[in-house]
Amino acid sequence: MIDRSWLDRAVFAGFERSPAVALLGPRQCGKTTLARGLASASAGGVPARVFDLEHPADEAALENPLLALDGLRGLVVIDEVQRKPGLFPVLRVLLDRPGTPARFLLLGSASPHLVRGVTESLAGRVAFVDMQGFGLADVGAGALRSLWGRGGFPRSFLAAGDAASFAWRNDFLRSFIERDFGTLGLGATPASLGRLWRMAAHHHGQYLNASEFARSLGETHKTVLRHLELLAAAFMVRLLPPWHENLGKRLVRRPKLYVRDSGLLHALLGIPDESALLGHPKLGASWEGFAMEQIIARLPHGDWHFWATQAGAELDLLVTIGGRRVGFEFKVSDAPTRTRSMLVAREDLGLDRLFVVAPVSRAYALSPGIDVVPLAGALDVVAGG
Question: Which residue has the higher pLDDT, 378 or 110?
Fold first, then answer.
């Protein structure tokens, strides 16, 4: 049994701040399972009410949402809420009732409909909890290689074997491209989206060059940017922003592009198992994206960047933890060494600490303030604030 009780606690903490919590994450990451667990344990003797907007009966029940929701008490779960954006003005009315008797848990796949509905109708009335698939903190350090290879989607990670996991991920990609992307209102043809997503995988960990994408895909520069931003809104890719500070140096100002789930990255690249991954040219970039996502998923804010100069110095991830500026480099080597780029980043950015995250079994110091750590050790740094 995989313990994800920290997510339960995050939802409860959200309800302490607001009468509604939006639990946002990609499809198939476990949102519904978590919500139904919370519903089954609903306290106070009032049974929870669950509406799944992909179920015809539940969708029909909310045709008149004010009538259906006004008399409910306790926990009310609305799954795939982005499918019915007209709900948000009604929810605003319900949440503004004095002593509102219900708490609403809204599950969504972060489509523009959902984001716009929350920001326009529910501003100040809803707490946000972001959710991904399984992380290393959920499955344990002993499962690191499996998690890296298969990714965090529960059905992929828990598959009976590598072949079954790989097949599930390819089915997921096809379903998302042909069905889910359209139902989210993200407006791209399946063929163009599939080409874009695979091109993104081949540029994983690189600076985004939207003009190059546009030329290769026969699309406009603006269309490429819009579709990548929509994939990012659906938690499928990450556009990591650069850090800008007046350092007297010319800095890289384009975002870096990552496929967020390592298992989907490997499926897009045609990498079926660990043996193929270890011999693949994208091995280092895969580790970088995987380890970075594990760290970002445990940070309580959205203040993360990379830093790079035109002269070639670079830092993979820059965050602030407990008021301290901390840098992370990701190296797939089992014995990484100190580089001049690390020293430049530490000096120019005034880093309190710099951690080199590698698939090693123990931590060791490279120099004062620069340490090599296993990924689990890096997560301990983040958790410790």
Answer: 378
